Amino acid sequence: MPTLFHTRCEALRFPFLARKRHLFSIRTVYKSIKIDIMIYMEPLLIYKALSNETRRQILLWLKNPKEFFDERKYLQQGISFQIGVCVGDIQAKVGLAQSVISSYLLTMQQAGLLESERIGKWTYYRRNEKTIQEFADYIQKEL
């Protein structure tokens, strides 16, 4: 997913946003652009996200999290897998560094394959079935 400023040259096109005192404005504009971009499915971002075996494996695990993760500790906290699966649990299952898993999850979220929800200091991820279905329909019609 593109960010607001890819290069210094692009930042110069928006000098009123590039100043430190307008940092809040940059975040506000970026959030509004991000929301607008995420309304539409972007097949190239999805292809990129699915090109990695670990990301595909995570997507499979999130399809049926009860089969792959222990729900008891979620239920003890008063939440269920409908909220999603905690990043820490995904990281423990994959066995890679937390920063790598966070990067993978962000890539899938930017592609629209995942949705996240933050509760306290924890972030939970779940599949975005609507986008996955749109992509499946796109593949069937276009390829």
UniProtKB/TrEMBL annotation:
Domain HTH arsR-type: 35-143
Record-level Gene Ontology MF annotations: DNA binding; DNA-binding transcription factor activity
SMART domains per UniProt: HTH_ARSR
Highest rank taxon of the organism: Bacteria
Keywords: DNA-binding, Transcription, Transcription regulation
SUPFAM superfamilies the UniProt entry points to: Winged helix' DNA-binding domain
Segments passing through the bilayer: none
Protein name: HTH arsR-type domain-containing protein
Native species: Paenibacillus baekrokdamisoli
